[in-house]
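for the writeup, i need someone to sanity check this before i put it in the appendix. the sequnce is what the collaborator sent (i think, or maybe the updated version? ugh). structure was predicted straight from it, no edits. if anything looks off just tell me and ill rerun, i have time this weekend
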Amino acid sequence: MKLTLAKIYFLMADLENGINVEEETLKQKIMKLEDVPERIFEIAEQQHFEHKSINEKTADCIQSLEQLNESERIRCLAWMSLIANADGNLGDKEWDLIADLYIDVFDISVRDVVETKLELASKLNTI
């Protein structure tokens, strides 16, 4: 799950033309909360830039999410939403991807993801 989470981080940043200060801060918190070593983010970043198009990057993340169990997938999708909104602005491209993954790709209850997102957001406030 850790590598998938890191891949999601770079995909969401790419949808908004790069990593901003808020997303970098969130990355540090994700690393603490999920016990993800910096090296995992380095690997994910390297793999992310091996793909040329956003469609290839998205397909890679979907493939990684498919390998997770449902609970881990829900957690990653909740993180995806938090990463997308880290700068206070949920862009159209970000929302389109998130909604597509929840509904069309994985058929996951939005309620389950929102509950997990609220739980994670609460924990983030303590870091």
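The chain has a mean pLDDT of 91. The helical segments are 2-15, 21-34, 38-50, 54-66, 70-84, 92-105, 110-124.
thx in advance!!
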